[in-house]
Design brief:
Blueprint: E1 3-21, E2 24-38, E3 43-48, H1 59-74, H2 82-92, H3 97-115, H4 119-122, E4 131-132, E5 135-137, H5 142-155, E6 159-163, H6 168-182, E7 187-191, H7 199-208, E8 216-218, H8 226-235, E9 240-242, H9 249-258, E10 263-266, H10 268-271, H11 274-286, E11 290-293, H12 300-312, E12 316-319, H13 323-326, E13 335-337, E14 340-342, H14 355-361, E15 362-368
Parallel strand pairs: 5-6, 6-7, 7-8, 8-9, 9-10, 10-11, 11-12
Antiparallel strand pairs: 1-2, 1-15, 2-3, 4-14, 13-14
Length: 369
């Protein structure tokens, strides 16, 4: 089997409501979709959802890298030769992990379809029967966040993810308001997205919310400050998770060597797809760590890929693959039954792409053959 052509679509996914985090407000989500064609007629779908604040890639740059650099390099390759394909991509261009993830995901979709197996069977088989998803709440006033949290619990969620990181004192009020609103038993995760910047500021906030029983604090300091994460871990009883500071094996080695955090958030867009993500999970397991699979707020395509690895790996204890729940229009449907999401015994990624919606949401297109 050989790759004969790659179609690249630059799309924008409409959000139901704006998504607000510490460094940006999104009114829609830019993403790049690929359709990888093979000489036996199989087609694999992949996705790259860029975040210039995390990987240094933009919507425009991912489109250009895929169409001008990466797609031409993988033409005539066998999708099953996934390690070779990554080696070719890495020798063609450094970094550009979002663009590489799009090709990687499409190759796994093809491999699953060729073998009539769901992708999770290619990653070790089903370990978890189903996966729980949190309700992600944007940065808003304490009162609105508390109201949205209450509504989420009434909807059936049992886990909340609070976005904070704009103003320390207001963040304290936000977290306290949500805890007061939902009671003591609901799981609450807090994500500052680097917004508190320093360990001193982070420790100030964490001291003020120590009675709020949060499950963990995610990326309170800037991405490069591994020592800051270590200091926070040493001075608080609240578990610490790294996100933006973890991309690939180099950072994973440093983190595990220093015992700098308690948990890791792995994202396909940060590491380059499923193949390198599996390597990171195994690396974490060797060091005794558990992981989460996160999201750049991706469509059903990349969300499905993240769910497959989450379902397959014992060490992945949580996921935040909720992008499809945030869009008013998506390319495919996943089986969300709040608070759970289910994957079924369907070959490949296990989703049916709505080509009309793909065409409708496309702003730029190019085919490489």
């Amino acid at each position: 089997m050989k790759i004969t052509s790659v179609e690249v679509f630059a799309i924008r996914l409409p959000l139901k409501i704006p998504f607000i985090i510490s460094y940006h407000t999104y009114y829609d989500m830019p993403s790049i979709i690929v359709k990888v064609h093979t000489d036996n007629g199989l087609i694999g779908y992949g996705e790259g959802t860029p975040d210039e604040h995390v990987t240094g890639e933009t919507w425009e740059s991912v489109f250009e890298v895929l169409t001008k650099t990466i797609a031409p390099a993988v033409l005539h390759r066998n999708p099953f030769d996934i390690e070779k394909i990554h080696d070719v991509m890495n020798k063609t261009i450094i970094n550009s992990t979002t663009a590489k993830a799009a090709i990687d995901i499409a190759c796994y979709d093809i491999m699953g379809k060729a073998t009539q197996q769901p992708v999770y069977n290619l990653l070790g088989g089903r370990y978890h029967n189903h996966l729980e998803v949190p309700k992600v709440i944007s940065i808003l006033s304490p009162e609105i966040m508390a109201s949205q949290a209450t509504a989420a619990i009434e909807e059936g969620y049992s886990m909340l993810k609070l976005k904070v990181g704009t103003d320390k004192k207001l963040d304290i009020k936000r977290i306290q308001a949500v805890r007061d609103a939902v009671g003591p038993d609901v799981a609450i995760k807090v994500d500052a997205n680097q917004g508190w910047e320093t360990s001193a500021d982070s420790l100030y906030v964490l001291d003020q919310i120590k009675d709020c029983r949060i499950d963990w604090i995610e990326q309170p300091v800037v991405a490069s400050d591994i020592e800051g994460l270590l200091e926070i871990k040493q001075k608080t009883n609240i578990p610490v998770m790294i996100d933006e500071g973890l991309h690939g094996t180099k950072e994973m080695y440093e983190i595990t060597l220093k015992r700098a955090v308690d948990m890791m958030n792995i994202k396909l867009m940060k590491c380059g797809g499923l193949f390198p993500a599996v390597q990171l999970v195994h690396q974490a397991e060797l060091s005794g760590y558990t992981c989460q699979v996160g999201s750049m707020v991706e469509s059903a395509i990349a969300s499905a890929a993240g769910l497959h690895i989450s379902l397959a790996k014992k060490r992945i204890k949580s996921n935040e693959l909720v992008g499809p729940l945030m869009f008013s229009e998506d390319l495919a449907k996943l089986d969300f039954q709040i608070p759970f999401v289910y994957l079924h015994d369907v070959p490949g990624l296990g989703i049916d792409i709505d080509e009309e919606v793909l065409k409708k949401l496309t702003y730029n297109y190019l085919k490489i053959d």
